[in-house]
């Protein structure tokens, strides 16, 4: 990690739900919480708890120097709504096979 930049990943203990347009896209009690310097906490949801059948792979890819290359998925009315790191960097391997949404409900 760059000096002053940290990433920690912990097992979440809250119920996480993602709803878009009235439709539940993901729901899990097994989300990981990723804390990264300068970013809000992000909930990474196991792929098994995400409605992948509703999402379409996007052409978008971004590179994070700390996590690796992200792939994105979209809905017809929401581009690049969710992302994942199919081959995350060694320090964050726990997020492999997990997806992250911009907006989640936590309870």
From TrEMBL:
It comes from the Bacteria. Residues 16-103 form the DUF427 domain. Pfam families: NTP_transf_9. This is DUF427 domain-containing protein.
């Amino acid at each position: 990690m760059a000096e002053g930049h940290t990433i920690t990943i912990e097992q979440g203990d809250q119920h996480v739900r993602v709803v878009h347009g009235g439709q539940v896209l993901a729901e899990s009690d097994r989300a990981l919480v990723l804390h990264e310097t300068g970013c809000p906490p992000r909930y990474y949801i196991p792929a098994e708890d995400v409605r992948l059948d509703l999402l379409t792979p996007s052409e978008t890819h971004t590179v994070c120097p700390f996590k690796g290359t992200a792939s994105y998925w979209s809905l017809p009315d929401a581009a690049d709504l969710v992302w994942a790191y199919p081959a995350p960097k060694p320090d964050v391997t726990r997020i492999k096979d997990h997806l992250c949404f911009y907006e989640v409900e936590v309870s």
